[in-house]
DNA sequence: CACAATTCAGTTGTGCACAATTGAATGGTG
DNA sequence: CACCATTCAATTGTGCACAACTGAATTGTG
């Protein structure tokens, strides 16, 4: 009566594909809609944060997005080349780089306002459905992050390791 | 009473982050567990398909995974270099390349059997929860794919375009 | 049969994700 | 003050995703 390993493998295949496909499908829809703004999906995420905060160091940006400098540095350079942001070393702490919107970057927000509605109409999901789905996904992420944290030795709560 | 654009943008920010984070969290958990097998997450997906089908052309593989040759060609070369698959031009159709498992590739399945259980225990989700979540995600993917198909002119059902 | 359109794998170029490392700046300790 | 550890952005290298293109093989049509 127990689920045999073989069935688990098939189920894993299903959920793997589902998630992978969903992630890429989402990416694809955003790509189409963001093409008008000249942004990629990750660049849009960065802009969303900057529209809320206006100026913040790369480190903070990375914390919001869970991305490290290895991803952000080249991405921000491209946004800078596009004239949407400026990067400048903090005077207070020379290690830190402050990212701030240019006027052009601020102005882009007005055009971005229509993006979510276009996405929503693509999915046919209403605000409530979106919220519900988000809650469900966040549960999953939380569980996964907790699991990943356990597996990584550094900082893992001591005493909880397998006997 | 209508949801204003600004709120949509905030909500979009939320759902964007959620999905992006979930996708990467999942990827991270798989990465840790698959490290033992020497596979990346996409490589694992390919192997899952091959364990079911044993031999099939790159094209079919791409249809199963929704990936094109631009992604699969180099990935399959790496799997071949790792000794898990062989690639050979089909005799029947010289355009096609047949991918088949080596003995080593077949043998790896035994070790992979424990992967789903480790993933499941990471998430704390049972089979039913996994199935329910998958169904929900698939709905989303279907909606997104339909939306993407509409937006792309080629092959879009004629007569259904916006007046 | 000849020729155009299609199919298929592969390549090229751009961009993201992440691990590992580098190097400068900073902060803490003796 | 001198020394060491930490913090931070940037760089390097590997791998995936996708668009655009190439070139060979095949199929459809006259």
Any overview of this molecule?
- The structure is a homodimer of 163-residue chains.
- In chain A, α1 packs across α6.
- A three-stranded antiparallel sheet of chain A has the order 1-3-2.
- The first copy, chain A, starts with a helix and ends in a 12-residue tail after the last helix.
- With 163 residues, chain A is mainly alpha-helical.
- The first copy, chain A, has helices at residues 5-34, 41-53, 58-65, 69-81, 103-112, 115-123, 127-151; strands spanning 55-57, 85-89, 97-101.
- At the A-B interface, α1, α2, α6 and α7 of A face α1, α2, α6 and α7 of B.
- The first copy, chain A, binds a DNA duplex (30 and 30 nucleotides) through α1, α2 and α4.
Give the SSE layout:
The structure is a homodimer of 163-residue chains.
Chain A (H helix, E strand, L loop, with lengths): L4 H30 L6 H13 L1 E3 H8 L3 H13 L3 E5 L7 E5 L1 H10 L2 H9 L3 H25 L12
Antiparallel strand pairs in A: 1-3, 2-3
Helix pairs in contact in A: 1-6
The structure holds a DNA duplex (30 and 30 nucleotides).
Find the biggest chain interface. A-B, 67 and 67 residues
Largest sheet of chain A: 3 strands, antiparallel
Low-pLDDT runs of 5+ residues of chain A are 154-163
Global mean pLDDT of chain A: 85
Oligomeric state of the chains present here: homodimer
The chain-level structural class of chain A is: mainly alpha
Number of helices of chain A: 7
The helix content of chain A, as a percent range, equals 55-70%
- Shape estimate of chain A: globular
Largest sheet, spatial ordering of strands of chain A: 1-3-2
């Amino acid at each position: 009566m127990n689920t045999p390993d073989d069935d688990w493998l098939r189920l894993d295949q299903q959920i793997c594909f589902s998630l992978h496909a969903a992630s890429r499908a989402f990416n694809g829809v955003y790509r189409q809609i963001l093409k008008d703004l000249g942004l990629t999906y990750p660049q849009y995420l960065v802009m969303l944060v900057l529209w809320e905060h206006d100026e913040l160091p790369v480190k903070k940006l990375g914390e919001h997005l869970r991305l490290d400098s290895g991803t952000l540095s080249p991405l921000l350079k491209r946004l800078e080349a596009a004239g949407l942001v400026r990067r400048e070393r903090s005077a207070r702490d020379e290690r830190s780089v402050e990212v701030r919107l240019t006027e052009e970057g601020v102005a882009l927000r007005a055009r971005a306002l229509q993006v979510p509605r276009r996405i929503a109409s693509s999915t046919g999901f209403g605000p409530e459905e979106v919220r519900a789905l988000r809650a469900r996904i966040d549960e999953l992420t939380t569980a996964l992050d907790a699991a990943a944290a356990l597996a990584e030795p550094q900082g893992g709560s001591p005493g909880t390791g397998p006997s």
